[in-house]
Amino acid sequence: MEKANNMMTDNEMMCWHTLYTAPKSEHKLMQCLNAAGYTTYCPMQAVFVKWKGRTRKVIAPLFSGCLFVAGNVAEVTSLASSQKAAILVDKEGKSLSIEAGKAELPAKFAQLLKL
Description:
It comes from Bacteroides muris (ex Fokt et al. 2023). InterPro entries: NGN-like_dom, NGN_dom_sf. This is UpxY family transcription antiterminator. About 25% of the residues lie in helices and about 30% in strands. The protein contains three helices and seven strands. It has helices at about 25-35, 75-80, 105-115, and strands at about 15-20, 40, 45-50, 55-60, 65-70, 85, 95-100. Strands 1, 2, 5, 6 and 7 form a five-stranded antiparallel beta sheet that branches. It has a two-stranded antiparallel ribbon with strand order 3-4. Strand 3 (about 45-50) and strand 4 form a beta hairpin.
């Protein structure tokens, strides 16, 4: 398991597992996982939302309901079930894990979603 207090650069390759949670609860889950010592990543984007006649800038997750966690499959699976989240799987039923640095993780995940 990769602990959050280990200093890693964005360029270092890690094995990331994709967790699916309820939309708009990614930040809360990320805080719980970070407090437990896991390395998490949730790519964010700025979106403009029209609300009550005004346009506001809101920071939202790039992939709604998705969060990336570094660690081995067994730990992440048990963690997901305890946090009301599910681990995403591929077509063969294996854990959807991506080996990449933080910088290229969103692009590789988007590429997997197209398949």
